[in-house]
Amino acid sequence: MPRPKTKIDMAELEKLYGMQCTDEEVAAFFGVSTRTIERRCQTKSFREVKERGRAKGRVSVRRDLFRQAANGNIAAAIFLAKNLLGYRDVMSNEHSGPGGGELQMIVRSVLDPKPEESGARHSVTTKTA
After folding, report:
1. Is the pLDDT of residue 23 over 80?
2. How is 70-86 classified by DSSP, letter by letter?
3. With a threshold of 0.70, does the pTM exceed it?
4. What number of other Cβ atoms are within 10 A of residue 28's Cβ?
């Protein structure tokens, strides 16, 4: 005889997924296995409740983030600019010598007491994109 089907309250399920709970957390809340939650997700009604809860949770987070940015939270404003508007930090990793010319490297031997007289001056040319 199979075990009786565990009752999962759909309203509670939507709230948990709205808080972005994992399947493991939802399973622990209802006292069932993660496998039970995964199996129930294969049914349309359960899956729709899960997706609706997650969507409501994302909207709630976004609403709060916008509120924080509007109230002067610089970190929230930067996050929104980067993630919604495509802004990005740009760092130049281009290496060049004086006036944009080639880099000059001086190679000195640790054993040579007067490196200037050894003629160990080498020029390195780099290509920049």
Report:
1. yes
2. HTT-HHHHHHHHHHHS-
3. no
4. 14
